[in-house]
Amino acid sequence: IHLCTEELVGPLTEKQADLLHAAREDCARLATIVDELLDLSRIQAGNLQLRRAPVAADDLVRQALEAQHASAEAKQLRLRSEVEPGTGTVQVDEARIQLVLSNLLSNAIRYSPEGGEVVLRAAALNDGRVRFEVSDAGPGIAPEYREAIFDRGFQLPGQPGGAGLGLFIAREIVQAHGGQLELATPLAGPDGKPTGTTFRLHLPVAA
User: Fold this and answer.
1) Mind listing the pLDDT tens digit for each residue in 47-84?
2) pLDDT tens-digit profile of 99-117?
3) More confident residue, 44 or 147
4) Whole-angstrom Cα distance, residue 128 to residue 149?
5) 3-state secondary structure string across 118-177
């Protein structure tokens, strides 16, 4: 499908291109579900092995945003980073934490209005941890679902998605690092309803 959409086997009509792009998105979604199921099986079996190493916080942020560039561009979204000077390094399994950030960023892109902005922040704390935040300006998460969004298999009503495992697995990965993943309290809009969503994770600094 990728070869066809890149027209390596010949030009496409507009209708063919639309169908192939939809098929490519479905394939990507299926691949994500398979990866999530594999991670879930490792978590349940207690076999989630972490390969920890010092990684610069600004490198994590840069790579995470670069991986989401195409998705953001398709929705005319701006991706922005805010890394405080002196944030330093974290002791993590880079591939696993990139999976966490990818999940949070892809959700933020999915629920953001076209032309909006998604921000990934990083800052060192005084307790030996680094805080990362992913914020969007979407509709926010209703109070009645705020506790359930990390449950295995949970999906927001009326929202298409995968297997409802992304946030559950993301939290398990962060907790396996001795960290914490949480949903920050949303800001209220002019009508008093929550606006935007911010997920916050804390990870240990490298010794």
Assistant:
1) 778 889 999 999 999 999 998 988 898 889 999 999 99
2) 899 999 999 998 899 999 9
3) 147
4) 28
5) EEEEEEECCCCEEEEEEEECCCCCCHHHCCCCCCCCCCCCCCCCCCCCHHHHHHHHHHHC
